[in-house]
Design the sequence.
């Protein structure tokens, strides 16, 4: 099991930007893919973005394409989520996740989870 520690959440006005970070305790075949999910109050946890450690290939939910960018720093075992042009509907707890494959990640399957970080976008 990999330990994940998120940081970078906060309060921002609509149109603003935030960058989330997720530091993983290790990189193994069990966490070849990293990603971000979010959960708004009263709603299910939804996939946001994912990235492969090895190739850097990225995947995004349609709702964030063109606004959010996921990236990784292999030397630091850290994944980032740069969020631009934020909207009030982006308000949620954002969770970092680690999984063995991109398919597992995008389906929300057998994943390791971070503790979550709150992102609030005011109108």
Sequence:
């Amino acid at each position: 099991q990999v330990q994940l520690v998120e940081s970078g959440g906060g309060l921002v006005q609509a149109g603003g930007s935030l960058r989330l970070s997720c530091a993983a305790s290790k990189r193994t075949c069990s966490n070849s893919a990293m990603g971000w999910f979010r959960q708004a109050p009263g709603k299910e946890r939804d996939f946001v973005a994912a990235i492969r450690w090895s190739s850097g290939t990225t995947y995004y939910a349609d709702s964030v394409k063109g606004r959010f960018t996921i990236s990784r720093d292999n030397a630091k075992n850290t994944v980032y989520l740069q969020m631009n042009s934020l909207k009030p509907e982006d308000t949620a707890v954002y969770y970092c996740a680690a999984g063995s494959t991109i398919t597992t990640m995008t389906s929300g399957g057998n994943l390791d989870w971070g503790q979550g970080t709150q992102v609030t976008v005011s109108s």
Notes: The radius of gyration is 13 Å. The chain has a mean pLDDT of 94. The chain is about 5% helix and 50% strand. Helices lie at 102-107.
